[in-house]
Amino acid sequence: MAQLFHPSREDITLAGVLAALADPMRLRIVKSLMQQNDCMSCTEAAPCPGMAKSTLSNHFRILREAGLIQTSKKGVEHRNVVREADLNARFPKLLKTILGYAE
Amino acid sequence: MAQLFHPSREDITLAGVLAALADPMRLRIVKSLMQQNDCMSCTEAAPCPGMAKSTLSNHFRILREAGLIQTSKKGVEHRNVVREADLNARFPKLLKTILGYAE
């Protein structure tokens, strides 16, 4: 499997974070990941049960490549967690403010 | 001239605002408009002097259609102002938090 790309903390940009969150489905995914203590598989964090796997993977890829989430492989699954420490270091309160308005 | 489209306050969405601001040039335009007391023409608010007029118009259109700015016609010019009251009513502190991190 190809290595998953994650930007380093200092490569996370404001415009990139906003673009990644500029979609109701991705806002829901991040909100749902934040509400968990543990990391979640893509399917668990899916905003709606019937969503196609390819659509879901694409949303997770966009979030990952913008630095919003960290994805790790556990067996056959991808486990995801929000990069809260990195995001709060770069843009304190930004994520909390945005997610406060997400449905 | 065709009427310029502006969404009503209640039609301004979080994802729409984030998408409109998910671009370094548009972040600069909004920041520069916020720093003025008066409204500005598109050229005055341009993030870089050499930017093509069509590129600039496109950025202003995206901002206007997402509810970020109000554009009015004054003679041959378009005058622009940030819809602070509407944005703060819909998403208190969101704009301030985001612009605080814009260059």
TrEMBL record, chains A, B:
InterPro entries: ArsR-like_HTH, HTH_ArsR_DNA-bd_dom, HTH_MetalResp_TranReg, WH-like_DNA-bd_sf, WH_DNA-bd_sf. Keywords: DNA-binding, Transcription, Transcription regulation. Pfam families: HTH_20. The keyword Transmembrane helix does not apply. One of its GO terms (molecular function) is DNA binding. Residues 6-103 form the HTH arsR-type domain. This is ArsR family transcriptional regulator. It comes from Bradyrhizobium oligotrophicum S58. The lineage of its organism: Bacteria, Pseudomonadati, Pseudomonadota, Alphaproteobacteria, Hyphomicrobiales.
